[in-house]
Amino acid sequence: CADEKFELWRIDKAKKPTVLVDEFQGKKLNGPNDLWVDAKGGIYFTDPYYQRPYWERKEKEIEKERVYYLTPDTNELRIVADDLVQPNGIIGTPDGKMIYIADIGDKKTYSFTISENGDLSNKTLFTEMGSDGMTIDNQGNVYLTGNGVTVFNKKGEEILQIPVPQKWTANVTFGGPSQNILFITAMNSVYTLEMNVNGVR
User: Fold this and answer.
1) Domain count of the chain?
2) What angle do CA 47, 51, 54 make, to 5 degrees?
3) How far apart are CA 145 and CA 154, in angstroms?
4) Do 90 and 37 belong to one domain?
5) Does one domain contain both 112 and 145?
6) What residues make up the domain containing 95?
7) At 8, which helix (H) or strand (E)?
8) Of 115, 131, 147, which residue constitutes the final position of a domain?
9) What's the CA gap between 176 and 68, in Å, rounded?
10) Are residues 123 and 96 in the same domain?
11) 150, β-bridge pairs
12) Each residue's pLDDT tens digit, 163-185
């Protein structure tokens, strides 16, 4: 999510970037923030507007802060959610049937059903908490960031709070050879935690 350029990039192993998206209907994106790639290679990404100090621009070209889907062939970019205040974190389930999107501007996180063509439906409140970055584990628990890391089960019930000694946590993901190390990015540090659950690829 190359929000410095208002673009979506793919970077290969040789560190060469390819610009996948640089506008929508002739207007600059607000600033791609977070994404999830489905099993087909399609990309869901959130596009909130946060005025960055390194931008020359001072206002939006696209009024709504939306969630977009870029088809696997990268030929079509379409809106899949445009009724959120400020979408930010996003993560899908490993079976590709459901996606969670955090509306950080409204302090809520929703689940959506993913249709065969990638469209979203059945918007359902998951929890009354927004999030920056998000992840999911192999038991279907969802991890939200902001104040440390808060973990919810599939029913949207809080089951764990992981404290982090910083004012803000921005993202969380699983890594390592066994996908059992939780990586947490905070204000000026990265934290790791060995878990009894695993992430999903």
Assistant:
1) 2
2) 110
3) 17
4) yes
5) no
6) 1-131
7) strand 8-11
8) 131
9) 29
10) yes
11) 144, 161
12) 999 999 999 999 999 999 999 99
Question: Judging by DSSP bridges, how do beta strands 134-136 and 77-81 pair with one another?
Answer: unpaired
Closest CA relative to residue 8, chosen from 71, 51, 59: 71
Task: Give the sign of the dihedral formed by CA 78, CA 140, CA 85, CA 130.
Answer: negative
| Residues 82, 85, 89, 94, Cα dihedral to 10° | -40
Pair 119, 108: CB distance under 8 Å: no
In Å, the largest CA–CA distance within the chain is 47
pTM assigned to the model: 0.96
Asked whether residue 76 falls in the same domain as residue 117, the answer is yes
| 101 and 179 both lie in a single domain | no
Q: Which residues contact 36 (CB under 8 A, 6 or more apart)?
A: 43, 44, 45, 90, 91, 92, 99
Reported in sequence order, the residue ranges of 22-76 that DSSP labels E, i.e. its strands, are 34-37, 43-47, 66-70
Give 24-49 pLDDT, tens digit per residue: 999 999 999 999 999 999 999 999 99
* Residues 114, 41: Cα–Cα separation, whole Å: 14
pLDDT in tens, 97-145: 999 999 999 999 999 999 999 999 999 999 999 999 999 999 999 999 9
